[in-house]
Amino acid sequence: MTLRGTRPNPFQWLWYAVGGRLPQRCNPWVLHDVTCRTWAVRHFIRAFFQMSPILLLLLLPGPLYIRILSILLGMFVGYFYSMTYMWHTTEQRLVKQGFARGLGEQTRRARHAEADARAKAAYERLYRSNT
Description:
This protein is mostly helical. The protein has one domain. The protein has seven helices and no strands. Helix 3 (39-51) packs across helix 4 (64-84). The longest helix has 21 residues, at 64-84.
């Protein structure tokens, strides 16, 4: 499934990365962005961009190790919450573009339906057999 659509320009992507809505012509690209094989990596990159202002802590006075540790701790906490709410956030991006809630999860699940069915059948044979 390749729903690429019109890619946003760099300024539009920056707006999208911080939670903005893209023009309607970019809808297929947004659907692809949050459902493709690398959707989690893309989410991680958007989260990095959102947290990049924390790097300004390097400009503050004080011991370098404290500034670096502050940045690392802040980014760790930020990534923790970003990854925890990754599914909700990607669904919200789709809703913001006008798609129905749940479409992202549905699309990702449909992509792996055959492999999931095989795994379930193997599980049933191994652990639920009556013999």
